[in-house]
Design a protein that fits this description.
The structure holds 2 protein chains of 2 kinds.
Chain A lengths: L1 E9 L4 H11 L6 E6 L5 E9 L2 H13 L3 E6 L5 E12 L4 H11 L3 E5 L3 E8 L1 H11 L4 E6 L3 E4 L8
Chain B lengths: L2 E3 H12 L3 E4 L6 H8 L5 E4 L3 H15 L3 E5 L3 H15 L4 E7 L15 H5 L5 E4 L6 H13 L5 E7 L8 E3 L19 H13 L3 E5 L1 H5 L3 H11 L3 E3 L14 E4 L6 H9 L2 E5 L5 H4 L10 E6 L13 E4 L2 H15 L5 H18 L16 H11 L5 E4 L3 H9 L8 E2 L10 H11 L5 E6 L10 H7 L4 E6 L4 H10 L16 H7 L3 E5 L2 H13 L5 E6 L9 E2 L15 E2 L7
Parallel strand pairs in B: 2-3, 2-4, 4-5, 5-7, 6-7, 9-10, 9-12, 10-11, 12-13, 13-14, 15-16, 15-17, 17-18, 18-20, 19-20
Antiparallel strand pairs in B: 1-8, 21-22
Helix pairs in contact in B: 1-2, 1-6, 3-4, 3-16, 7-12, 9-12, 10-13, 14-15, 14-20
The chains are: A alpha+beta, B alpha/beta.
Chain lengths: 163, 584
């Protein structure tokens, strides 16, 4: 089962490599990883999506907690949460395709953020499944390049991950 | 406030931290630090002959005293040579601080001379590491390093210091912090009261209980409350390889070591137990055999300071995260409050069963190896060593058959007397470890039980022993082969001894020892064993290399039968080879 783990780490050099190293060292999977500083300059927040049995996820969270640079973490998938991923995608769009692609972007509530005579660059934000669905809809043949940010997420309601 | 250079601050901080001794080896990037060593006299330095030995010596200093060991190496090859020792300490959770020199900050990343990314290369085998980027931070970083190394689940901490951070011409205000707090690091200080009570009730209701105690009890200085609890409950105790000495080895409630080469009675008792009280142990694969066949009837209480150790390989029914000493003391208190007793009838049946196993299979009850041949047996050497040293020596060991024989035939009465690389299994550990122990305990008897294979991995340290007058005794069980490799080749590879034999290439260890200024003694006959060993230990102020010719055909038994063995019933803790021809 897929899990989204949000981790607050000290904004120290090497902190990221300790987290990433843990996964490779102990044979755990990282599907996506996002990292950025938080409003508190001394902290960074990582969001990791990983898959594994309950036993493996328990070990992952325990070992993450053991890393001295890790301040706090939460498995978002344990409760109600919002997850988002951003995708930029370059699509060949010529002739009648231009209108077709535009319609598709509208349906998925994306935005065309750059245009040339033959190419649209589209920005799409949403649940990872929605991004996958967009691939299908637009047709793989016309896709020139894709970049995805990886999943980021936050718990719903009053629950917050902070110090 | 006093003004000091980075190098002087480092040495002052080490002294203020209470560091008495550094095991190290100088080199370019560490030279400012070595010059600072020269300028002070509070911290001593032992110059080893190879950085690996510095780490093992510091590690064993720590194991035998409970105080964090310290070593100092230079950048590049100095740092990489230290890696094996860091990994050794990491796998056995030994508190140690490793200070490494690094190329000057401006050169980092340029593939400079003797540059290696020490923080990166050591990352998977340290508890934490620091790269010093501002000399003013040195005292605070040293404080944190020692705090992290020794608290919670202990482990090695690396402090990598670029050369310019210790330059003598730039001065800083020196202040050594009295306390340290890390918001991201809060090891447990007490076990959960409810869980501890539950554990106690489970024990009280048990009919076939056993205490399975590991190295954590030694690291956590909890031998006394463990012994008190076992005595109050009259419960059998087994120790892991790392835990030997945590419970008195000569006590009748002690079943000996468990696991791969553990005692039959210990492994049988585990397999048949209804409650296992595991403390400071981690259900290592060398203990459990196949986890799906592990102790089918047992409810498991697992006490450990590290939550990640609990339910890692075997699921715990009552997990308790906390320091072993406080948890055991809480257990004792609850026992007194509950005023309940064990089921004495069930317990006496359990003891009758255990004593039957012990009488039938116990290797200390009577010799289970063959003693009619002329060849000296490694087992009788260890038994004689025990007799001659009255079981009071510090024993370090290398890795292989001799290590298992020492663990089986030298019942350790006290904690911190058995010093071996249990987790990583590092050959070459024994001699430098003996130096570290002897340095810490100048008047104690320190013996390194080794083999002719392992000893050659750090034999250069005989020279360090000369320089610092460290009169360790080297008990080399010489079977002219890599014994444990050969045993596995005999058992699993049709007796094909691929690259495990020395074929007349061994040095004359007597002459070798003499060339370093030490004494060499050769023993090859049963009749001379005790007398010569007694003479060896009478030479209190000399290093003695005892080269003992033992039977090259001997195998270590008992031995757990692995799950994939073609011979049928196997994989659980009751499945054991008893000799080359017998099995349970």
């Amino acid at each position: 089962m897929k899990h989204i783990i949000s981790v607050l780490v000290e904004n120290e050099p090497g902190a990221l490599s300790r987290v990433v190293g843990l996964f490779s060292q102990r044979g755990y999977n990282i599907e996506t990883l996002t990292v950025a500083p938080t409003e508190d300059a001394t902290l960074s927040r990582l969001t990791i999506t990983t898959a594994g049995s309950d036993h493996v996820i328990e070990q992952i969270t325990k070992h993450l907690n053991k890393i001295v640079d890790v301040v706090k973490l939460v498995d978002l998938t344990e409760g109600a949460h919002i997850e988002r991923e951003l995708m930029l995608i370059k699509v060949r769009a010529t002739g009648s395709q231009r209108a077709e692609v535009k319609r598709c972007v509208d349906i998925f509530r994306g935005q065309i953020v750059d245009v040339t005579a033959s190419v649209y660059t589209i920005q799409l934000v949403g649940h990872s499944d929605k991004l996958d669905a967009f691939f299908q809809a637009v047709g793989e043949a016309s896709i020139l390049e894709v970049v995805r940010s990886g999943v980021t997420g936050i718990a719903r309601g009053e629950k917050v991950l902070s110090l | 406030m006093e003004q000091l250079s980075g190098g002087d601050m480092l040495l002052r901080a080490l002294a203020d931290e209470g560091v008495e001794c550094i095991f190290g080896y100088p080199g370019g990037a560490a030279l400012h630090i070595y010059d600072a060593i020269f300028r002070q006299d509070r911290v001593h330095h032992v110059l080893v002959r190879h950085e690996q030995a510095a780490t093992h010596a510091a590690d064993a200093y720590s194991r035998s005293t409970g105080r964090t060991g310290t070593c100092l190496v230079t950048s590049g090859p100095g740092a990489t040579n230290a890696i094996t020792g860091i990994a050794t300490a990491y796998l056995d959770s030994i508190p140690m601080v490793v200070i490494s020199g690094q190329v000057v900050s401006d050169r980092i990343g340029e593939d400079a001379f003797q540059e290696t990314d020490m923080v990166g290369i050591s990352r998977p085998i340290v508890k934490h590491s620091y790269l010093v980027k501002d000399p003013a931070q040195i005292p605070a970083i040293i404080k944190k390093a020692y705090y992290l190394a020794a608290s919670g689940r202990p482990g090695p901490v690396v402090v990598d210091i670029p050369k310019d951070m210790t330059a003598p011409d730039v001065l800083f205000d020196y202040h050594y912090p009295e306390t340290v707090r890390l918001r991201s690091y809060n090891p447990a200080i007490r076990g959960h009261a409810g869980q501890i009570k539950k554990a106690m009730q489970l024990m009280l209701a048990a009919k076939r209980p056993i205490i399975y105690a590991g190295g954590g009890v030694i690291q956590g200085n909890a031998s006394a409350p463990l012994t008190a609890l076992a005595k109050k409950l009259n419960v059998p105790v087994t120790n892991t390889l790392m835990g030997l000495g945590a419970y008195p080895g000569d006590d009748k409630q002690f079943l000996g070591m468990l696991g791969m080469h553990g005692m039959v009675e210990a492994n049988f008792a585990m397999h048949n137990a209804d409650v296992i009280f595991a403390i400071g142990a981690r259900f290592d694969d060398r203990v459990t055999n196949a986890t799906d066949k592990f102790c089918p009837d047992a409810k498991i209480v697992h006490v450990d300071i590290d939550p990640a150790s609990i339910s890692k390989t075997v699921r715990a029914d009552v997990p308790i995260v906390g320091p072993v000493d406080s948890v055991l003391n809480d257990m004792l208190q609850i026992f007194d409050e509950l005023k309940q007793t064990m089921d004495t009838e069930a317990l006496s049946q359990w003891w009758a069963q255990i004593n039957e196993w012990r009488a039938k299979h116990g290797i200390l009850v009577k010799p289970r190896y063959e003693t009619t041949s002329e060849a000296l047996k490694p087992q009788e050497v260890i038994s004689t060593l025990y007799e001659v040293t009255k079981g009071e020596a510090y024993i370090t060991s290398d890795v292989g058959q001799h290590q298992m024989f020492a663990a089986q035939y030298y019942p350790f009465k006290y904690p911190r007397r058995w010093i071996n690389s249990g987790g990583l299994g590092t050959m070459g550990f024994g001699l430098p470890a003996a130096m570290g122990v002897q340095y810490a305990h100048r008047d104690a008897v320190v013996a390194c039980v080794t083999g002719e294979g392992s000893i050659q991995m750090c034999i250069q340290e005989l020279s360090t022993c000369t320089q610092y007058h460290l009169p360790v005794k080297i008990i080399c069980l010489n079977n002219q082969a890599l014994g444990m490799v050969k045993q596995w080749q005999d058992m699993n590879y049709g007796g094909r001894h691929s690259e495990s034999l020395y074929e007349e290439s061994l040095p004359d260890f007597i002459k070798l020892a003499e060339s370093y200024g030490h004494v060499g003694v050769r023993i090859s006959k049963r009749e001379e064993l005790k007398e010569k060993l007694t003479e060896v230990f009478a030479m209190k102020d000399r290093v003695v290399f005892v080269d003992i010719q033992v039977d090259p055909q001997e195998h270590v038994y008992p031995m757990l039968i692995p799950p994939n063995d073609p011979s049928g019933a196997n994989g659980s803790m009751r499945d054991m080879f008893l000799s080359k021809t017998e099995r349970t």
